Each structure stands twice: as C-alpha cells, then as structure tokens.
Amino acid sequence: MNSSDHDRELDRQLREVALPTDLVARLKCIPEAAEIDAALDRELSAVEIPAGLAEQLHDIAASSTLVTRNVRERSAASRRPASRWIAAVWAVAASLLVVLGIGSLWQINTKSNVAKNDPVSVIPGPASPSETSLALDWLGPTGAEIEALARLPESSPLANRQSFSPVIITEASMPETQVVQTDAPRIKSLSEELPEDLLANTFLMRWQPLGANPMIDSTHKRPQLVLPPANTVSYFPESQAYDREFLLRESSHPFASPQHPSMRATNVPVMGSQKSFENCFFSENPLSPELLENARTEEWLAATGKFYVPAQPHQIELRTAAGPAVFAGAGTQLLEIGIVAGAVDPEDRAPVHLTIAVTPPESKQHAQQTWLPLKIALREMIEQLRPHDSVTLVVMSDIPYVLIDDATSEHRDEWFAALDQIHVGSPSNLAEGIRFAAATSLTKAGFGDMRRSLMVLSDRFPALDASTNEQLRPLIENASQQGITFSWVQLEDDNFASLVPAPPAFQGMGDWVVTNSLQRLGRLLNQQIHGISTLVGTNPNVRVNWNEKSVAQYRLIGYQPMGGHFVSTSETRELHALESGTLLFELILPEDGPNDIATIELTWNDPQGKKHKSEQKVSRLQFASSWQASSLSLQVAQLTQQSLALHQNTYFSRRRGNTIDELDNWTSSLNPAIGQHASYPRLEVLLPTLLD
Predict the structure, then answer these.
(1) Residue 17 phi, psi dihedral angles, 5° rounding
(2) Which among 17, 521, 577, 594 would be 20 to 30 A from 457, CA to CA?
(3) Where are the transmembrane segments (predicted)?
(4) Tell me: the pLDDT tens digits for 167-220?
C-alpha cells in the first residue's frame, strides 16, 4: 500500500470513529501551564502531615489484627481512628498521583504545540511521514470510565476530598487504560505534516472532528457530524499535508506546499455562477451582512471575469495571467486561470432586427434591482451584433418614444450614451408602450429571411387590468401574424416566477420569463440575436500540476466547501456563450528555480456529451513585473477579490492589515482600457472610488 492509499484508508477509518459526546468538554477542562503551576502550589500547601506519621504507618502495617480481623466485628469506636489514618494515607498518595499526572500532561501539551513564527519564503524540506507518525495518542478516559469513577463508594477518601475538584485524569492516574488496547482510536491532530514555516501560528486552532459541517455551528459537547459522501469529492488529496481544520474554521484555503507528493496536483471543478454577486447588488438589501456572509469569491470573479481575450466559437478555452499580489506581502505572486466560453452565433444565420422596449425605473431602489442589471446586459449585447444586425431602443414612458434607432455594432458609444439618458423617476405607460413598440417593430422592413423580434422588459406587467389586456390581445396577434416574435420579461426575482403568471394578453404569444438576474438577461439577449441556445459546455474541470522545484507554497482563493463536502455531485455546471470562470492562486516562488511553474489541464463536455481536453504551461516569463504591467483581467480579479475580502473581514485580509484606502489607491491606477469596456459597470458597483 502506497502512502496516498494509506492516508486515504486512515482518513476513512477516522470518519467512522464514534466520538464520545463529552470529548470536547474534557479537552477544554485541561488547564494551561500557568494554571497547572498555581493548582500544584495550592494542592501541596493544603497537605498537612502530622508528626510521627512514619512511625504510625509502620505500626499500622505491623498490626496483624487489622489485616485478619473481620470488619463487621469492629466497633464504631475502634473504626474511627483507623479511618482517619487511612484517609491521611490516601490523601498523600492522591496528591502524589495528581502531581505526576499534571506534570506529564504539561509535557504532552508542550510537545504538541505547533505554533511557529511568521512564514518565510523558502522551500521547506520534503515531508516524509513515518509509520510512527500515524499513531493515535490517548486523550483520556471515555464517558463510561468517568461515570464508573463517579460511582465509587462514599467511603473512598479521594472521592470525598473537595480540594481535588475538578479531578484531572492522566496516564499516571489510570495505568490500566494504557494496557488495554481498544479498537476506537483517539484523534490527536490533522496537521502534523505541515511545513514548519507555513503560517504555522495560524494552525493552533480548536479541535473539531473531521467531517464536521462547516456551514453549521457545533453545540457544546455535541459536535455535529456529516456522513462521508458515497463518492469521495475533494479539491485536495486526503493527506495530513493539507490543513483541513484551518479551512473549516476560517472558510479559506490555507497555504499548501508542493514539496509533499500529494500536494503537487490541484483539481478544481470551475463554476460560472454569478448568484451571490447578483444577490449582493441587485436585491432589496444590497450588501447586507447576511448576503455578504454567504457570498462566494468564485461567483464574484465569474461575474466580473469579462475582460479575457475571447475564445473561439463553440469552444471553452484556457486563459492565464500572472503578476504581483499587491494586497499581499512582498514576494507573493498571483496566478489567474480563466475558463472562457466562446460565442454560439451560427455562421450562416440570417440578420436580425431587435426592438427592445423598457420602462424607466420609478425609484432608486427599483433602479438598483431592475434597471442596473438590465443596463449592464444591454451594454454587453451591442458588441455581439453582426454588421447587418440592428437594434432599436423604445422607452415606455408617459409618452413612449424611440431613444435610439437602428443601432449597429459600430454605434457602440452612441448606444452607451443612450442608456445613460434613462433617468430614475420618469413616469411610465406600459400599455401604450407595448402598442408603440409593436408598431415600431412593424415599420422595420423585412427582406429575405431577416428576423424581427420584440423584447419587452418591465417590472409592471401585473398592473395591467382586464380591460387593458382585452385591448392589447388583438394588437399582439396582428403583429405576430406579420412576423414579429415576442418575448416578455417581468423584471423580478426568479423566486416569484410561480406567483407572477403571464397576463392574458400574452398567453400563447411568445416567451414569458420572470427574472432580474444579470446572467440570465445576458443569455436571453444573446438567444434573441443568435436564434439558438447559448449553452457551450458543461462541467469544466481544471487540474494544476505544480512544479515543486519552482513553487514553495500556493493557496487557492475561494471555492470553499459547501454542505459538508466540497462540491455537489448532482449539480451540472454550465457555461453559456461569453461566460467565464476564474481560479486565483497566491504563490510564493523561490528566487532560483526552473522557468516552468505549472501545467494546467482543462476538461469539459460539449452539449452533445463529447469530452474535450486542452493543456497549457505557465512560465516565470508570464509574470508581470508591476501592477501597471498586469493584464486587464488580472487587475479586475484582484480588485474583485479584495473588495469581497474587506466586506467579509476574512482571515488573510485581517492578518495583512488591508484597508479601503489601500483598495482605493490601486483602483485609481487602473488601466484606462478597463473604463472603456462594455462590462465596466460590473466592476464599478464594487468599488466606492469609481462611483464618486
């Protein structure tokens, strides 16, 4: 059995261990070294040895009547003096046992202390676990043993001595427990093989059983366990070289060293979801503590990861960038791995004229929840038009009007300016706006197989009364008969889709959707332009093979465990057209080493189920020398990650003393090309400096 199989088998056995409910309480009762010394002084000072004790003990031992005489035949008067001397003897013996036990326990605690100084940027020596390092030390008596001691006869002097409470049971006080070997092991540590200088002072953490659910709080004396999944899923090999206790406590991955053989490869299933980003900014309570607590770094990075070089159509490709980690200590580098999906636009599709009708937001709150995500999606849509495609924007205000007509991809700046002219608080007229938008779409002459689509987006469809629906129905039917394709979008949370049915005027006349999701709005607009499904691939997975000669330490940012284990095996991770996922690694590189840092392998499945694989190497030559020289995607990724870290006050942000002023300072030196990008508002909502 090799070392990795041995570690996996050990970890499996540890997960099946039945842990006593009072183990945490017993561990917490162990005093510190200073308390041990004080308790020792108090116990020794309380002992009173009467004069002539040695001679009296010899007389007691030489007395044959006390040994052979039946206890029941003794009178009460003769029993009282003997009991007093026996109590004194037991008191002295118990004091010596307690002293020996406390001393041995203090030595054990001193040897098991793993606190070290701050990390040093050097390659630690390879960790070679021996067979003896896998031995599990005895942590004390079980709950049954404690109950048995509590049931000792009342005549026991040790149990009745108040000066010995609480009783600390050690190896010296219960030698029989050491001799009897049981099948239930006692866990000592999960972090024995960590490199000596790897943020060691952060690994002195409270004990928590392996398999504990990190998303729930453990009650006192009753740690809550999660059964191991049927198929083991882990971002890291199950090895003692990776500190899982730190991950459970801080919800952040610790640094790991590729010097350990099991740490030389990192497997991460990449996700392109943007849910937590949207919840934090496009909800009723933006940036509330409850939403920020559950926000996930990888979803924020996916939402702002629009600054990569585009991928080939119908493909998912790797993108890498590297440079200094400006929010970390000197010498720390940042490696960005992007997974980018290409477009799904068919080569031989017909041109499209898209008419988009929107209602202006009636309040600032509505603008944040409905108009802002729609505005970002419309900005990004204009760049997906082909030369013969065009789009018209209708504002369904009190008197509906065309804001910009027949815009193409060449009118990018004019399109952005038109969107900025839709102000908060303008009155609206949804019914008249629908009639006007349908008439505007009909005026666009169709030729050949040109498609004409009308997309109406508003948060006020439920306000249409019965008479208005009756008047709109024939107008919509007439436009549909003349080749207009309708799409209706109620700008509201997806969770209310079952509560907001389509109005009678729209039933059977086009698609009805309830959403205010930025990601879903982008997919709907792309589907209107391309005329087909936007799905490119599913289940992208990245494997990073580290070069242990070039990397001293690395740390994965984000991708914390969910629900007791790392990834839901039943969830299908999808990447649609122009979406992306991002991995960020902090690296500590030695001054000397080979140029090759790592080899990255990407696997994914296309919509037909065919598996694809690609590979890319990362070299020292890719690392930018400064913040200004870093790529657009790397600058945005650093700002996004640090913005969330400051909101959540995460461990590494606290330890490094990061501040909002520091974030503003680096924001002020952004590459100007980022501000001209269509996806710039995604970053703008994160950073206060950009909004001033």
Answers:
(1) -70, 130
(2) 577
(3) 85-106
(4) 333 333 333 434 344 443 333 344 444 344 333 333 333 333 333 333 333 333
Of residues 687, 673, 544, the one with CA closest to residue 602: 544
What average pLDDT does the segment 379-402 reach? Answer: 94
| Cis peptide bond prior to 166, omega within 30° of 0 | yes
What is the CB-side half-sphere exposure of residue 540 using CA atoms within 13 A? 29
Rounded CA separation 75/535 (Å): 96
Give the dihedral sign, CA 586/558/244/259. negative
The pLDDT of residue 45 is 75
- Quickly state the pLDDT bin for 436 (edges 50, 70, 90): very high
How distant, in Å, are the alpha carbons of 432, 436, 605, 671 from that of 475?
A: 11, 10, 44, 50
Say if residue 625 is exposed, middle or buried (CB neighbours under 10 Å; 0-12, 13-18, 19+): exposed
Residue labelled with tokens 């600058």: 635
Q: Is the pLDDT of residue 222 over 70?
A: no
Task: Dihedral sign for Cα 355, 359, 360, 364, please.
Answer: negative
Domain locations along the chain: 20-119+135-202, 254-344+535-691, 352-530
Phi, psi of 441 (to 5 degrees): -65, -35
Tell me the residue type at 131.
E
**84-103: per-residue pLDDT in tens?**
666 666 777 777 777 676 76
Average pLDDT of 269-283? Answer: 92
For the chain, the maximum distance between any two Cα atoms, rounded to a whole number of angstroms, is 125
In degrees rounded to 5, what are phi and psi of residue 211?
Answer: 100, 0
* 316, 355, 539, 631 from 602: Cα distances, Å: 9, 39, 10, 21
The answer on pLDDT for 482 being more than 80 is yes
The answer to whether the CB of 626 falls within 8 A of the CB of 638 is no
- Grade residue 39 by pLDDT with cuts at 50, 70 and 90: confident
How many other CB atoms are there within 10 angstroms of residue 277's CB atom? Answer: 25
The structure tokens listed for 33 are 């070294």
Confidence band for 1, pLDDT divided at 50, 70 and 90: low
Contact (Cβ atoms closer than 8 angstroms) between residue 194 and residue 77: no
pLDDT tens-digit map of 123-176:
334 343 333 333 333 444 555 555 555 554 443 443 333 333 333 333 333 334
pLDDT: which is higher, 488 or 186: 488
Q: How many CB atoms lie within 10 A of CB 283?
A: 15
Closest CA to 395 of 411, 374, 413: 374
Give the β-pairing of 352-358 and 390-395: parallel
- The pLDDT value given to residue 498: 83
Residues sharing a CB contact under 8 Å with residue 534, sequence separation 6 or more, in sequence order: 344, 523, 526, 527, 576, 577
Considering 200-209, 332-341, 560-569, 585-594, the range whose residues carry the highest mean pLDDT is: 332-341
Rounded distance, CA 345 to CA 352, Å? 12
Q: List Cα–Cα distances, 314 to 171, 538, 571, 575, 582, in angstroms.
A: 67, 12, 22, 11, 19
Closest CA to 378 of 350, 423, 420: 420
Rg value, the chain, Cα: 35
- 352-530, CATH topology level: Rossmann fold (3.40.50)
Token pair for 16: 């099946």
In the CATH scheme, what is the code of domain 254-344+535-691? 2.60.40.1230
